[in-house]
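REQUEST ID: PR-0412
SUBMITTED BY: lab tech R.K.
PRIORITY: routine
TASK: structure prediction, single protein chain
INPUT:
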Amino acid sequence: MWEKLMTQTIVFEEFDGIARLGFNRAAQHNALGKMELAGIESALKNLSADTRVLMIYSEGGRTFCAGADLGQISSGELTGDQFQAVTNQIADLSIPTICVANGNIFGGGVELAMSCDFRMAADDILMRVPAAAIGLCYPTDGIERFVSRLGVTVAKRILVGAEELSADEMKALRIVDWTASASGIMEAALDVANALARLAPLAVSAMLEIIKQAEAGSIDRVRAAQLTEMCGGSEDLKEGLLAKRERRAPRFLGH
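STATUS: complete
OUTPUT:
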């Protein structure tokens, strides 16, 4: 059974190696204010040591996430830096993350999605970052993430062109990895999460770290060698090879 922790606007639950973080603020298009960001930070800090995958989704409403709460930013209660800090925390996690865009994605919600390692979109949603349409220069860290993950051309279409994209267009541009029906997206995403959770966690986290270094433009070869050596001497590798010989599913313990 899922172990659930819930605030008024954030749902966090864990079960069998999978954590799910849900936005529950449909009336505000699941915009993230000070309380929501604090709830997300708390959830990230309290991930179980046994958690292998994190799914991020919305609990309801037509919008997956509209980014930071603009009302709170206007009032000074919230800053863009606070929102950016949370997306950076998501991007820096050592476990795979899946954005389950089961509603439209707008503004900073797109960056939050890009902070995840994998993205799945409901086939009836739309995506848009309207910064250029309202006279806003998107934050530098966000621009850097769009460029590093999508390339210059797609980043220009999203940010400079402020294009509205359908789920099919998002998949064609490789903004999302998969699409699924609105009614079946959570089940489809859970299938992906279960597949990831069954993999060797040391190898997964090691390769994620090296990939993120490459994405940033420079691989620390010493650190990469240490990670490779750690995996090569792990009990997980022994188990993986033994399971292959015995033609059974491996039982990885993460050491």
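NOTES: The mean pLDDT is 94.
REVIEWED BY: pending
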